[in-house]
Each structure stands twice: as structure tokens, then as C-alpha cells.
Amino acid sequence: MKEYLEKIIAGEDLTFEESYAAMTKIMNGNVNNSHLAAFLIALKSKGETAEEIAGSVQAMRDKSIKINCSDNNVIDVCGTGGDNSGSFNISTATAFAAAGAGVKVAKHGNRSISSKCGSADVLQELGINVNLLPEQSEEALNTIGIAFLFAPLYHPAMKYAAPVRKELGIKTVFNMLGPLTNPAGVKRQIIGTFSSSAAKTMSEAAKYLDLEKVCFLCSNDKYDEINLGDSTTIYEYNKGSKVKNYVISNATFNYPLVDESQIKGDTSEINAKLIFDVFENKTRNGAFHTIAANTALALYCAGKSDNLDECTEIAEESILSGAALRKLNELKAYSNK
Fold first, then answer.
1. In this prediction, what percent of the chain has a pLDDT beyond 90?
2. What structural domains does the chain harbor?
3. Strands (E), 229-272
4. H or E element: which one contains 54?
5. How many angstroms from the chain centroid is the CA of residue 269?
6. Long-range contact pairs involving 23-26 (C-beta distance under 8 Å, separation at least 24)
7. Span 305-326, mean pLDDT?
8. SS3 assignment, position 129
9. Among 26, 65, 322, 333, which one is most buried in terms of CB atoms within 10 A?
10. Closest by Cα among 85, 116, 57 to 270
11. Burial of 173: CB neighbours in 10 Å, binned 0-12, 13-18, 19+
């Protein structure tokens, strides 16, 4: 590990192979805490490159527990975390709305690290058992069309890095690795990031990984999802093509501007109620529009349609028809049987 650390401190980038080797050492528990902390801080200070991210992702994937999905267009909707936006669990709600529209969703997530309520926390509040065995989640994904993949159950090797991450308490390369290590091997995703620069670098890393279509996004360097109160920068990766960079806003979806207060999150109880209110058609406010917009982009990445307007209509129908709520209730029933 020392040779990689010295190279980074000298301001040199690691190759894909070197990054893979370094992360494999970490995942095997062969790096002491002081060297690991120094490695993460030095890498962050230098700035992580696409190859460094991709090599590390591949090492994490190789050490993870995996499940299979019968549908090659299965998607994940998640974020890096660390955006400090304080919004409710938008990607979790989006997962159910996308599933309600007929797309299989393998939602990869964890408990709260930097916010009050992570995806696992709000799902538990919604009545869903997040501790299903991998084979149970695989069955749920292939029969119901949605599953929650609780990260600690699929990435046991992360236990070697967890104490240092917690002690450091800052964003590191691991924030960018998690979304790219889905246990279902998804090739289509929307990935929210903590900054536009992170979205750009991650989109460049995608070409080294086995991915089909992924939209990496950030809104105003604050939200790791589409925020209809501001513009959202997107880096769209399509296999075999150059990364496309563009900006979307509320006008893209013909929606009104959404005030930050309408998507503000809090405890798991408050966030769960907000999601239920939208899914039970008790409100058509900014939370509804935000979920619909993020779902539309998810459907676009899943290949439901190449037309974002059409995807928006499908997303709205999933919520308004009760299909999104049915998917939530189906997963709730399955996870507790």
C-alpha cells in the first residue's frame, strides 16, 4: 500500500490496475487504519480520477455478494450521499414510482450516514423489512419487480473501511463507489452526486465499467437528485458514445418552480408520511412533481421511452393510478411474510 500512497502524495494518478490492487488490499483487511486514512485523504486532496474510481469499483464488485435479475433493463436509482441538502428520500420514492410503471428496480441503499434519514430508515418506517436475505431479495426483484438491497448485507468487506470512514467524517472516494457497485449488476441507472465535478468524473469512469446507460446528476452542487427549484446538471453516459452534458430544470417537465420547503426532509416518520401523501394522492405539490421528474429520468434510462415528455406522463400515471403505492405494499407484504 505504501507505494500507492507515495505515488498519490507526489501528485501522480494511479492506473486502473493500481487502483484495483489498492482497493483489493483494503477489502481484504490488509491495510492498517493509519495507512487507509492517509490513502483516502491523499486521494481526495489530489482529486480522484476516472480510472481510480473505476479500478476501485471493480475491486468492490469482485468482493460483493451478488443476485441475478431476469431483466437486463433493471435499474437502480440512488445517490452518493453527502450532498447536505436535507431533502426527503426522493430516490426511494422514485424507485416505487418507476416499478409502478413496469420497470424492474434494484434499489441499493443504506441507513443514514450524513442525513437524518437514509433509504433503509424510511423504508422501515414505511413497513418494509430491509434485512431480507439475498435470495429473498432476488425473488422479490424477479416476481414483484422491486427489491431493496441493503448495502451492508452485500458488501461485507466494507467492514474493514467502516471505522476509518466514520472517524474521518468527510466525503471520500467511497461515496462515489457505492452507487456503482449494485449487487444486481444493473447496467442502467440514475446516480445523484454531491457535486457537478463528481458527476463528470463518475461519468468518465463509466466507460471502464460494464454499463449501458447512466445519468449522473447534481443540482446546483447541493442536491443529488433533480431539484425543480433550480437547474440540474446531467452527464449522460451511453455505451459506445461520448458522454453528453446538458442542463434541465422545472421547465423541462412543464412543472412550476418548487420551493425548497416542499421537499425538505426530517425524521423517518415525517419523510414516510410525505411519500404516503403523494402516493395516496393527498397532495399534488412540489413533492409530487419532484418524484415524477426523477421517475421520468429513471424511465428514460431504463429505455421505457427516448422522449422525456412521454416518460413524464408515464411517471405521473404510475403515481396517480395507485401503481406506485401498490408496488410499495407488495414489497411490504413480501418482506414481512
1. 87
2. 2-63 (1.20.970.10), 75-335 (3.40.1030.10)
3. 232-238, 244-248
4. helix 50-63
5. 22
6. 23/55, 23/56, 23/59, 23/60, 24/59, 24/62, 24/63, 25/1, 26/59, 26/160, 26/161
7. 98
8. coil
9. 26
10. 116
11. middle
